[in-house]
Amino acid sequence: MRLVLVGPPGAGKGTQAQFLAAHFSIPHIATGDIFRANLKAGTELGNQAREFMDRGELVPDSITNNMVASRLEEPDALNGFLLDGWPRNVAQAEVLRAMMIEKKTPLNAVLEFSLADEEIIARLSSRRTCRDCGAPSVGVDKCPTCGGEVYQREDDKAEVIARRLEVYAEQTAPIISFYRNEGLLISVSASGSVEDITASAISALSRVAQ
Description:
Strand content: 15-25%
CATH superfamily: P-loop containing nucleotide triphosphate hydrolases
Number of helices: 9
Strand order of the largest sheet: 2-3-1-4-8
Oligomer: single chain
């Protein structure tokens, strides 16, 4: 199974990615993890990225694309993968398509988690983060993991969430149309319990699983 996850912030992609990767026995490849691994290992790509980050600049797509391409060459990803956080725009989606054509291993599906903006804002603005261990929680005064103090992150405030959704609509949502035109898009609702959403996703993907 070669799978890409898309959806707005707050749709629960990270949580669902873990369950889906385990179900299909494929690695969960998140761009944040790729960046951290390259920076920690001091790879050539990691050093190139660090130069931009140290200047407070965005890392160019070309470096991110090369990091992903390198990760997809690792043994655990040769028979399938779940990409989470990339591609973020149509240009990156076209790069991925070219990679897959070259390997003669096309994507099986692009899974979209859809959720109304109102529910996203309500969900994220109620989220709290532990100051000690960083674990997220909802509706509690103390961290359920370690008992530490919880607080609301700046990017979980309603006005910031609204802006994040605007950025998503401007930059990332166009890839949904791109993949719909490619005949790869499968959409499931991200409203409901984690278990129900996982079951819906697995059922939807069963048609294309190989």
